[in-house]
Amino acid sequence: MEILPHRYPFLLVDRVLEIGEDYIVALKNVTYNEPYFQGHFPEVPVMPGVLLVEAMAQAGGVLMLRDVLDRQNKLIYFTGIDRCRFRRPVVPGDQVIFEVRVLKKRARFAVLEGLAKVGGELVAEAQLSSAMVDR
After folding, report:
1. Are 60 and 79 a contacting pair, CB within 8 Å?
2. The whole model's pTM is what?
3. 94: phi then psi, degrees, rounded to nearest 5
4. Would you place residue 70 in the very low, low, confident or very high pLDDT band (cuts 50, 70, 90)?
5. Which residues pair with 23 in a beta bridge?
6. Which residues are annotated as catalytic?
């Protein structure tokens, strides 16, 4: 919360487990009381795939913003999502581990590779492009 501007109900990273110069490992505990489960789908709750991608992006945002001195004055926007695949549904009770690494980085632009895993099994992956802008 110190680095990301997101707040409930849209903060999708619960904890950073590990962070290096060009990678981050973060987690999300998926609970039944997540607001999106009321409608997606009430009798068979599944975490929306777009939120898995958003959570990968938020983990990447922590990585990209952590060393920016005036990060409170910056936002990171998606500029592209490529090679996105969903392998299996994520449901309440799952703990999703996000592994995100930098593929390319410039001053204000980056391309990241994100993996989402549950119990060591790949559930989603994507290549994310982003731009850092002034708020």
Report:
1. no
2. 0.95
3. -75, 145
4. very high
5. 101
6. 40
